[in-house]
Structures are given as structure tokens and as C-alpha cells.
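User: Just a sanity check before I run the rest of the batch. Below are the C-alpha cells for the first item. I only need the designed sequence back.
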């Protein structure tokens, strides 16, 4: 009987692990609650009407349609029994010989989960479409209201968090208001939209060198964004945010980009976790005491060779997935046990885009910004997009937006009705 490999999560880590196991002498089951792989680095462009949802998603079944040893299951994880080597889902049970847990992360409001209703995070396609609808609805309401105070609130966008997601969102929102929508309305001038970026630390993009963070702040300010560093959010409600000592910023659109935490399903493993909920793993990414169970991607807490934590970014997750896929494939065909190599993260750099033709990047020893960084950012993101059709569609959208200053995904969608959760079958 071939070894049974169960992969939980079709994100970057899970997808890479499965691709390495395609065609190998193992039976792979890939389980995810969604039917698609999401390219999260471009999610902010869906939220700001730059791209449509299908352009950054790829159906998981289509990715593995030619891999006959890989079965794709759309289901919800409900339990993990390491002793029985079995994972329970809403619709059944799945035994395994090897288990890869790569369920990603979710937004963290640092203990203030009641803020989620008024300040949504940006981790899923649903989040992006909801934020896009809220942004566009706010402009529509501003067009019809006669209350100047309410109009100003509707035309104020607050983004909490000065990391790459917050910076890219702020730049995209500023361009949407000041350039894309500038001729669409008659009673309002979208160029008067106020975009505020709030960061609790003393600078934005703290993972990049300080010089690049300052360059990014300068570029955002050129676009009209108010960059507020060293400022903490005290309260969030339906009418806006309270920051600092008692400053009030009325806003109809607050987006939370200030923190993430690992999927809470990591607790089902019963292992030690860090403050962000990431599971502490051994150097081969295995769970202590369980040689056949691995944790990867945003859920794994492991150190880089220099002693720093491996960051929760797409390149790290992809490297983990490739490492585990190769390791499992090698062990599945080995005639006798062998020593395992340690996972070693190779930091290839970091970058963030600020608007239409500017970015900041650190790639190896190189630190640069402006248009060359934007071209590098665009090329790398196109390179890692899954699916040839997606690459072409995104490239065409970016080309059109660059020359025409237009965005075609400005559609307000109705909220979908939630599907009922099936009852697990009796055993």
C-alpha cells in the first residue's frame, strides 16, 4: 500500500508540497475549506478595484487535474487525532501516514475582536470583496448626502497598520480616489478623499531598512496619504476611530492591517505555540514527538540561520512546502531510514509597492526604490502567480490601468447567503 499523505491547506506551503509529490509513489489528499488557491500578495488590488477575484485565484482541482495520485477535497477541519493518525472533517474522516498542516493565518485584533465588525482585515477573497463594496458604497452615499459632516466621514479612509499590506492599501486607495474616480461623480470631488495610515511604531515598513521606510512614507505623502507613525488606536466603532490621547477620526471605512495570528486549528495538535499561535517545530519542520507530522507556512514557528524568526511571508511558505514535498517523496521511496536535513530559509528580500509606478525593495544587498523597484515588484508577482491565464489577465489589467488610469473591477456585489454546514456522518 502506498504511503498516505494528508495536506491541510491549499495555500503557498500546501500547494508547493503537493506539487512536489505529484506523480510520486504516494497517495495525496489535499483538504481546504475553499476550492481555490489564493495569491494573497495581490489581495489588496481586489479590495481597491484594481483586479477582479478570479485573476488572483486558481481552482485547486484545475492545478492538479493531471496528477492522478492527488485527490482534492473541499471540507472543513474539525479535529486532528495524532495517535489514531486521522483527521476529522465536517463530512468524514481521513487517515494518514504523513500529515502536513499548512492552514495559514488570520487577522489579529490583539484581543479586541469586537473591532472586526467595524475594521475588517484582509486575508480572504471575501474580505477583499467586502472592503471593495464598502469603499464604493461610501462614495455613492457621499454623492447623495447633503450633510457636509457626513460626506467628510464617508470620504475618509483609515488603514491601521504600516506593514506591506497597509502601505500598499493606502497607496491604492489614494490612487483610486484621486485618479480613477475623479470624473465619475458630480456632487463630490473624490480627489478630496482623506486617506490616513496609522502605525503604532515610529516608522512604517519596519522589516525593511529605515531609509526605504522613509522613502515609502515620502511617496505616500506625495499621493496625499496622511502617514501617522507612533500612533496607537484606542477605539474603533461604526463612526470611525479614536487614536492617541483622545483624537477622533470620523470614518466610514476602517481597514485593519495591523497584525496576524496563526490559524487556531494549530491548537488541535496539542503542541507548544508562540504568542502569535504558531506551532513550535523541530528543524525539519516536524512536530516534537511525531516524526510523521509537519507544520509549515504561517503556522510554523522556526528560526532562520541567523537566529531570527522565519517571517510569515509567501516565499518562506513556498520554501517550506518544497522542502517537505521533497522530504516525504524521498522517504516514501527509501529502503531504510535516513537522517533528515534541516530546513534552511533563504531570505530573498522584501518589497512593497506604493501606487502606480513606485515601490521600495531590498533584494540581497541591493536597496532601491522608485520605478525600478516597481518593475521588479511587478515581475516577481507575475512570476509567482499560479496559472498562465492569471498571469496574462493581470498583466493586461496592469497595462490598461497604467496607461488609462482606469480600473475595471468597480462593481458592488450583493453579500452572498452563507451555506449550511453539513452534519458529520455517524461513525
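Assistant: Here's the designed sequence for the first item:
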Amino acid at each position: 500500500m502506498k504511503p498516505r499523505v494528508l495536506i491541510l491547506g491549499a495555500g503557498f506551503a500546501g500547494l508547493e508540497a503537493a506539487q512536489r509529490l505529484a506523480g510520486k509513489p504516494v497517495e495525496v489528499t489535499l483538504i481546504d475549506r475553499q476550492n481555490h488557491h489564493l495569491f494573497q500578495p495581490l489581495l489588496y488590488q481586489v479590495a481597491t478595484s484594481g483586479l477582479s477575484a478570479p485573476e488572483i485565484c486558481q481552482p485547486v482541482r484545475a492545478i492538479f487535474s493531471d496528477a492522478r495520485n492527488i485527490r482534492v477535497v473541499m471540507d472543513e477541519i474539525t479535529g486532528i487525532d495524532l495517535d489514531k493518525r486521522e483527521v476529522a472533517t465536517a463530512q468524514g474522516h481521513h487517515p494518514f501516514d504523513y500529515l502536513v498542516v499548512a492552514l495559514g493565518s488570520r487577522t489579529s485584533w490583539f484581543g479586541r475582536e469586537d473591532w472586526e465588525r467595524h475594521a475588517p482585515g484582509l486575508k480572504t477573497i471575501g474580505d477583499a470583496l467586502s472592503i471593495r463594496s464598502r469603499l464604493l458604497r461610501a462614495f455613492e452615499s457621499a454623492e447623495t448626502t447633503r450633510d457636509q459632516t457626513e460626506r467628510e466621514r464617508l470620504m475618509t479612509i483609515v488603514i491601521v497598520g504600516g506593514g506591506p499590506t497597509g502601505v500598499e492599501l493606502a497607496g491604492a486607495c489614494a490612487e483610486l480616489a484621486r485618479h480613477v474616480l475623479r470624473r465619475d461623480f458630480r456632487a463630490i470631488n473624490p480627489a478630496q478623499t482623506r486617506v490616513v495610515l496609522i502605525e503604532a511604531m515610529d516608522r512604517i515598513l519596519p522589516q525593511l531598512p529605515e531609509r526605504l521606510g522613509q522613502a515609502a512614507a515620502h511617496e505616500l505623502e506625495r499621493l496625499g496619504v496622511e502617514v501617522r507613525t507612533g500612533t496607537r488606536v484606542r477605539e474603533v466603532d461604526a463612526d470611525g476611530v479614536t487614536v492617541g490621547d483622545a483624537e477622533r477620526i470620523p470614518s466610514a471605512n476602517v481597514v485593519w492591517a495591523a497584525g496576524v495570528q496563526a490559524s487556531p486549528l494549530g491548537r488541535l495538535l496539542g503542541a507548544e505555540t508562540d504568542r502569535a499561535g504558531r506551532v513550535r517545530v523541530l528543524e525539519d519542520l516536524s512536530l516534537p514527538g511525531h516524526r510523521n507530522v509537519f507544520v509549515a507556512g504561517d503556522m510554523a514557528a522556526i528560526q532562520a540561520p541567523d537566529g531570527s524568526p522565519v517571517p510569515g511571508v509567501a516565499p518562506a511558505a513556498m520554501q517550506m512546502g518544497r522542502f517537505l514535498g521533497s522530504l516525504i517523496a524521498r522517504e516514501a521511496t527509501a529502503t531504510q531510514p535516513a537522517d533528515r536535513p534541516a530546513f534552511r530559509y533563504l531570505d530573498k528580500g522584501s518589497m512593497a509597492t506604493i501606487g502606480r509606478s513606485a515601490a521600495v525593495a531590498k533584494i540581497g544587498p541591493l536597496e532601491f526604490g522608485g520605478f525600478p523597484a516597481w518593475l521588479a515588484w511587478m515581475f516577481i508577482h507575475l512570476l509567482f502567480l499560479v496559472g498562465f491565464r492569471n498571469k496574462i489577465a493581470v498583466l493586461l489589467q496592469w497595462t490598461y490601468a497604467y496607461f488609462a488610469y482606469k480600473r475595471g473591477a468597480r462593481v458592488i456585489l450583493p453579500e452572498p447567503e452563507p451555506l449550511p454546514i453539513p452534519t458529520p456522518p455517524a461513525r
